[in-house]
Design goal:
Length: about 475
C-alpha cells in the first residue's frame, strides 16, 4: 500500500524478496473492467501480516506470481495478467478477517472450463503460509465468460414441460436405508413412493454398484417401478438413477443404459469433480436427459465461515457447468443453513439477473446471460409438518425431497408419499387463495389431515421433530455500509 522509494524497490527486486504489493498485485486505484472476473475472499492473515500484503499475496498466488521475482514476467503482458487486489475491508464482527476484492483479466481463464477457473482461484493459495485461513465468499463472473458455458442441459421450464407438472414444487424421496437393500426391495420402495403421490424418487449419494445391489439390478427394478407407477397414476414419474462411478467410461455406460430403459433423469455426485460434471452435462444435453446433482462432500469446504469456499460460489460454478438440479439446503431440515444465506443459493440457481444483496450473501450483481435455470432441491430431514415453511421459503421452483419423511411413515411408504402430496396440495391451494400460510400453516395442515389419515399420522408422528439452528447456522456475516462499497 505504502509507496516505497525506487531504490528500495530495486534492491528488494534484485534480492528476490519483493512484497506482493510492490510487484503490482495491490492496485487500490484499479477500476475492474466489465470483462474482469472478480473474487471476494475472506482473508485471515497470520499475526503480524499486513492485510493489504495478504490480499496482494492472494492475488499473486492465484494468478501469475510465485514466491520470488521471475525475470520471465517481462516476456509477458504481465500488467494485464497480474490479478489486482483493489479493495480490502474489515469483515464486520470479525476483527481478525478482511474482505479482499481481487480482479482477474478474463484471458487468464480457458473458456468453458470450471477446472481451469478453480485451479487458479482455489489453487495453491489456500495453503499459503502468510494466511491463517482463507475463504472464497463470492465471485462476479462477467457475461463474456458466462457465455462460454452451456449451462443446464434441460432447465426448469423444459423439465416442467417434459414432466407436465406446473404451479407447485415437485416432490421426491430418497430411498432408505441408504445402503443394503437388494434390487427388488429397492424397486418396491420406488413403486410405493411414486404410486403414493411423489413425482420422483432418488438414489442416495452413496448408492453406486455395491455387492448387495449391482447398478443394473437397481436400474432395471427402478424403471419397472416407474413404469408401473406411471400406468397406475396416469402421471409422469421419474427416479434419479445415480450413475456416479469410478471412471467416465463407467458413468457413460450407466447413463446410456438408464436412457435405453426409458429413464428421463440421471444423477451424479459433486465428488466426481468439475470436469466429470461438465462431461456428464454435455452427455445429458446430447441425450435430452435431466441431470441431477447431489452436493455430496461440499460441507468439507463450505461449512466453516473462515476457511474454504462458500456454497454460493459452488452454486454459481454448477449452474455454469450445467446441472439441472442441485441440492441447495432446507433451512428447516437436518443440515445446516440459515434462511437468508440459503435464499442467496436459491436465487443463484433460479434468477436470470441477480442484483447485489448482501443480506443474502450476494456481493455482486450477477447476470447469468442465456443460461437456463437450475432447479434447487431441498433435501435432508424434512417432513410434511413443515410444508407451509418449505413453500414459503422456496416457492414453486424447487424439488422437496423427503427420504425419512416418506419411508419412515408409520403406515408405510405409500402412506408417507400420500401425506406429502396432500400436505403440499393443501398448502398450494391455501397460498393461491391468498391465505397467510406461514401463520395459518399448522391449521391448514390439520384441516387437510381430517380427510387424509396418512397426513394425520405423519403430523402426529413427526410433530416434535424440529431441527434447531446451531452456531454454524449463523449468516456468513452481517452486512454494513463499508462492505456494500
Ligand atoms: O441425500 C439426501 O438428500 C438425503 O439422504 C435425504 O434423506 P432424508 O430426507 O431422510 O434426510
Ligand atoms: Mg443422502
Amino acid at each position: 500500500m505504502n509507496a516505497i522509494d525506487k531504490r528500495d524497490r530495486r534492491d528488494r527486486y534484485a534480492a528476490g524478496v519483493m512484497k506482493y504489493q510492490d510487484m503490482g498485485y495491490w492496485q487500490p486505484d484499479y477500476v475492474p473492467k466489465d470483462t474482469d472476473v472478480i473474487a471476494v475472499f475472506r482473508i485471515t492473515p497470520q499475526d503480524g501480516v499486513d492485510p493489504i500484503e495478504a490480499a496482494a499475496a492472494v492475488a499473486g498466488e492465484s494468478s501469475t506470481a510465485t514466491w520470488t521475482v521471475v525475470w520471465t514476467d517481462r516476456l509477458t503482458a504481465c500488467d494485464k495478467y497480474r490479478a489486482k487486489a483493489h479493495r480490502v475491508e474489515p469483515v464486520p464482527g470479525s476483527p481478525e478477517s478482511w474482505f479482499a476484492y481481487i480482479a482477474y483479466d478474463i484471458d487468464l481463464f480457458e473458456p468453458g472450463s470450471i477446472a481451469n477457473l478453480t485451479a487458479s482461484i482455489i489453487g495453491n493459495v489456500f495453503g499459503f503460509k502468510p494466511l491463517k485461513a482463507l475463504r472464497l465468499e463470492d465471485m462476479r463472473l462477467p457475461v463474456a465468460y458466462v457465455k462460454t458455458f452451456d449451462g443446464p442441459p434441460t432447465g426448469i421450464v423444459v423439465e416442467r414441460e417434459r414432466l407436465d407438472k406446473f404451479g407447485r414444487p415437485l416432490l421426491g424421496a430418497t430411498v432408505k436405508p441408504k445402503l443394503g437393500l437388494s434390487g427388488r426391495n429397492y424397486g418396491r420402495v420406488v413403486y410405493e413412493a411414486l404410486k403414493g403421490g411423489l413425482d420422483f424418487t432418488k438414489d442416495d449419494e452413496n448408492i453406486n454398484s455395491q455387492p448387495f445391489m449391482h447398478w443394473r439390478d437397481r436400474f432395471l427394478y427402478c424403471m419397472e417401478a416407474v413404469n408401473r407407477a406411471q400406468a397406475v397414476t396416469g402421471e409422469i414419474k421419474g427416479t434419479y438413477l445415480n450413475v456416479t462411478a469410478a471412471t467416465m467410461e463407467d458413468m457413460y455406460e450407466r447413463a446410456e443404459f438408464a436412457k435405453s430403459i426409458g429413464s428421463c433423469i440421471v444423477m451424479i455426485d459433486l465428488v466426481i469433480g468439475y470436469t466429470a460434471i461438465q462431461s456428464m452435462s454435455k452427455w445429458a444435453r446430447r441425450n435430452d436427459m435431466v441431470l441431477h446433482l447431489h452436493r455430496a462432500g461440499h460441507s468439507t469446504y463450505t461449512r466453516q465461515k473462515s476457511h474454504g469456499v462458500s456454497f454460493r460460489v459452488i452454486a454459481k460454478w454448477m449452474r455454469l457447468a450445467g446441472v439441472d438440479h442441485i441440492h441447495a439446503g432446507t433451512v428447516v431440515g437436518k443440515l445446516e443453513g440459515d434462511p437468508a444465506t440459503t435464499k442467496g443459493y436459491y436465487d443463484i440457481c433460479r434468477e436470470d439477473f441477480l442484483p447485489q444483496r448482501l443480506e443474502n450473501g450476494i456481493f455482486f450483481d450477477q447476470s447469468f446471460a442465456s443460461l437456463r435455470k437450475t432447479m434447487p432441491v431441498a433435501s435432508g430431514g424434512i417432513h410434511a409438518g413443515q410444508m407451509h415453511q418449505l413453500l414459503d421459503l422456496f416457492g414453486d421452483d424447487v424439488v422437496l425431497q423427503f427420504g425419512g419423511g416418506t419411508i419412515g411413515h408409520p403406515m408405510g411408504i405409500q402412506a408417507g408419499a400420500t401425506a406429502n402430496r396432500v400436505a403440499l396440495e393443501a398448502m398450494v391451494l391455501a397460498r393461491n387463495e391468498g391465505r397467510d400460510i406461514v401463520n395459518e400453516g399448522p391449521d391448514i395442515l390439520a384441516a387437510a389431515s381430517r380427510h387424509c389419515t396418512p397426513l394425520r399420522q405423519a403430523l402426529d408422528v413427526w410433530k416434535d421433530v424440529t431441527f434447531n439452528y446451531t452456531s454454524t447456522d449463523a449468516p456468513d456475516f452481517v452486512p454494513t455500509a463499508s462492505v456494500a462499497g
